[in-house]
Amino acid sequence: MVEISTEVLDTLTRAATALDTFEELIDSANQKHGWFPTLDLPAPEVRLLADLYDKVKAGRGDPRRAWRGAHPDLRRSG
After folding, report:
1. Most buried residue, 27, 35, 50, 78, by CB count within 10 Å?
2. Is 50 inside any structural domain?
3. What is the distance between the alpha carbons of residues 65 and 54, in angstroms, rounded to a whole number?
4. CA angle 33–44–71, rounded 5-degree value
5. CA dist list (Å): 32 to 1, 28, 39, 62
6. Which pLDDT does position 50 carry in this prediction?
7. Residue 32's domain spans which residues?
8. 1 lies in a domain?
9. φ and ψ of 65, to 5 deg
10. How far apart are CA 31 and CA 27, in angstroms?
11. Does residue 37 come out as left (phi exceeding 0), alpha (psi in the -120 to 50 range) or beta?
12. Is the pTM above the cut of 0.85?
């Protein structure tokens, strides 16, 4: 298994979300009302972030997973 540094995780998180750190992304205590991230960009690094989020949540027994789709009204055209 490949180890990913905290710095890389935080960089991925900042690039794909409005959060500053991966820890903020996975911190259930700060996620009200069942919040989970929308990580629907096709970029490989965003898919990696979604996979890592899902893995951490599954390991914690948390049923939330990253949303990888877009609402039909919000899909990018083109």
Report:
1. 50
2. yes
3. 5
4. 40
5. 32, 8, 18, 14
6. 93
7. 6-70
8. no
9. -135, 160
10. 7
11. beta
12. no
Burial of 29 from C-beta contacts in 10 A (0-12 / 13-18 / 19+): exposed
Name which of 39, 26, 36, 42 is nearest 65 in CA terms: 36
The total number of residues written for the chain in this structure: 78
Query: Residue 73's pLDDT is what?
Result: 59
Q: 78 lies in a domain?
A: no
- pLDDT for res 72: 59
pLDDT at 3 over 90: no
Amino acid present at 47: R
Structural tokens at position 60: 């914690």
- Inside any domain, residue 64: yes
Domain tally for the chain?
1
Residue showing tokens 């960089």: 11
Residues 6+ apart with CB under 8 A from 24: 13, 30
